[in-house]
Specification:
Blueprint (H helix, E strand, L loop, with lengths): L10 E8 L6 E11 L3 E8 L10 E4 L6 H4 L5 E12 L3 E7 L2 H16 L1
Antiparallel strand pairs: 1-2, 1-6, 2-3, 3-5, 4-5
Length: 116
Amino acid sequence: MSIPRKTLKGRIVLIYFPFTNLTGRKLRPALVLYDSGRDVVVAFISSRIEKYKPETDILISKSHPEFHLTGLKTDSVLKLSKIATIHKRLIAGEIGTIGEQLRNVINQKIIKVLLV
């Protein structure tokens, strides 16, 4: 699949996300944090909200006014502790985007996580 030249930053995509031990991969939603052209930096999104950690994660609930933009099906957690750089060829598709409110919350959390 050929990915268009548009920037994917801020888009929610489906990717083959590698397991942390690199023994496999699974198709998962992820937020593109940075698009370098060939590669993208993505943060894992999980529907397992019981594993939400407020110090590193962002809850994206169905009640959020921008949830409908995301393309997600259920309450989800953006895991800023699960970030990877991947080649764009691993992107299987695009399902949505984040709105300005969520973008601001995510940017603030990234700064806080990285400054610790």
